[in-house]
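Shift notes (night). Ran LuxR family two component transcriptional regulator while the centrifuge was going.
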Amino acid sequence: MINRHLRVVLAEDSVVLRDGMVELLATRGCEVVATAGTAPALLAAVVEHRPNVAVVDIRMPPTHTDEGIRAAVEIRARTPEVGILVFSQHVETVWASRLLAGGAAGIGYLLKERVARTSEFMDALHRVAGGGTALDPEVVTQLMRGGRRGRVDTLTPREREVLELMAQGHSNRSIAALLVVSERAVEKHVAAVFTKFDLRASDADNRRVKAVLTYLAESGG
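Came back to this:
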């Protein structure tokens, strides 16, 4: 793990936890350029400071339901170059799926009670800032709602390659350019992935998200 200097915006409404995390990050060589106790303050801080990564709690004032992760989705849309590490006690499946809809690159989602060592958190932070993915297996499990395992093994090498690029957030057109094939060929591969993963067009959730989550769950994230 390259321990490069990171600029971080930290959104956490608990003052005690927020101060503790600021101290922790500082001792690990990170610069907390701003802290936020509300979702609007988080959005403003990201726009102003353009950090490498934003650490976001889900439940923030005023309703303490999903303000934080809603803000994370907005950050993803406005400034996709900013990594997002959701750090919460809760799994918010609907908004987490929306956060991952554009691909899992630069996205992390850790559960506070399941992080056993400080090094795990720091590793995830650096991975997300570098464009990688850090999803707690419990998060993936809940997002998949008990989906069957082992389906990635049924893919052809090219289908797996297409799925890996989907996980990085590439569109069909972008994948076609990268693989030097037609967009129609990519569409056929994507359709084959959906079929093998039993993801029907009538599914309420985004099929690309579920396909990516299956890939991450079975490849170790």
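The two ends are 16 Å apart (CA to CA). The beta strands are 7-11, 31-36, 53-56, 83-88, 107-111, 133-135.
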